[in-house]
Write a structure and sequence with these properties.
Shape: globular
Structural class: mainly alpha
Largest sheet: none
Strand content: under 5%
Helix content: over 70%
Amino acid sequence: YVEGVRGLIRSKDMLRLCLLAGLWSMTQNGVTVFLPLYLVFVMDASPALVGFALFSIQVGAIFGGPIVGTWSDQIGRRPIVIYALLIAAFLLFLLPLFGNIYLFIIIVSLAGCALYSIRPVIHSWTMDLSDKNSSGSAVSMLFTAQAAMTGTVPIIGGLIADNFGLKLVFILLTITSLLALILSLLMPKK
């Protein structure tokens, strides 16, 4: 067991995947934290509309997760994660440009679909990179990286929002998505 854990820590691919997952999780949770604030303070949305927007980003996980997970079994984890992060980064960059609240919610739900649907793919990728004796430790390592990095989003995003406005928080989330995308491109093709 100890050897398996040491192997995980020495594996550049596993460390890269943990960093990728942390950045992805920062993006995903940043949307969840700052979307309601943006909708209320910038777009003057009602509580019901904020609730609907938060529901709409979860729909991607409900329907997209099983589809994307199955697809990743067929074509591989890497291409799925690359395309999902690329789509998410593009849509998050565009979000502050939309003044129509209903169009904004449609765009954010598509970004949510891209972000939330790859959770099972990233977890499967973790299992692929670990051997059967250390798969639990690998997932634990991944979750630790995600929790540590995700915890910084409310603080960093809040400071950006206070000093530069809520629109710039979506640029931060675009950047975290792009950094995760770069790491996914550096992962092995198999």
